[in-house]
Amino acid sequence: MERTDAATLVYVSYGWRDFGTGHLDEVCDECGFDSRCAEFDVDLRTAIAALCHLAGDSRAGSRPEPGTWSADEYVAHCLDQVGEAISVIDNGRPEPKAVVSGLEDADHQVKSLLSRVAGTDSHRQIDVGGPFPASPAWMLAHLLHDLEHHVLDIRRGYAKLGLERVAGRTIER
Fold it and tell me: Which domain of life is it from (predicted)?
């Protein structure tokens, strides 16, 4: 058997599954996300609040290593994702993206989006040209997963930056 650098291996089972509910649920074994447990009205706003807190850190502009985004870059990506989710749910297409000017605006727009979606069929089909039709519920699940996963990414980045500043030993598994 050929040896492989462990840093290049990725063991993640991220994807969408039909658990017998008639629609696809998003599950990620890396961050623990499971859309079947999501409460969008609370969880999306909690994730945005966590991003807001993390973005206020003095290290937000620092990359923990080459090729890994800084917190600022993750936040910018998350704002883009919020804009895209809003556009797909409201207009049935990802472009042009809704303009989201910051995390406070993201929170406001997500709150407004949730109130609009609450009165409609959350499983209505939206054909965005992917491998399967999306729905408002699917878009919200995907957005929530993206935000929560990137909160974890930012925390890992801050931990890595913190480890670089002190002497000690690091064990990689």
Answer: Bacteria
